[in-house]
Write a structure and sequence with these properties.
mainly beta, single chain, about 170 residues
Length: about 170
Amino acid sequence: SKAAPVQPVESTSPASELPAPSAEVSAEITQPQAADPVSAADGLTFSLSAEMVHEKLSLKLDYGTVLFVVDPNASDITLQFDGFRTRYLTHSNKKDGTAEFSYHVPKYYALPDIDSAVLTITAPENILHEIDIDLAMGDVDLGTLSVEELDLELAMGDVIADSLTV
């Protein structure tokens, strides 16, 4: 007989689950929100001040494309998640100045179109000091990024950089 993937069972959302799309993130960990059933991928935008990410930006993603855009006119760091299912996205700000984003899909869950999941990070010049990216499947485009420390761990995918300074 042919095996079929098991669909995940809805549970209450953890304290670190994200608020509704287009919500501004405070310096504290976000309040719990009820998880809405999401059958398709959706998007979410975060705007973080430089003080919130003065030490490190940490990304731990199951899949997707990560694009860095350096914008000298930007005042904050913007993270635009397109094509990600927001109920699997978590965020925390630590007291040491680390902003951490995780995206993990439950085991045996049918993945959406992996190529449509794009995280675009727009930041002013020389604002990000340390970046840690752990990506299981996907590509990372560093553009013209300039950081003090960069840690990339990719199981499958490519890294692209136009003019990287580390």
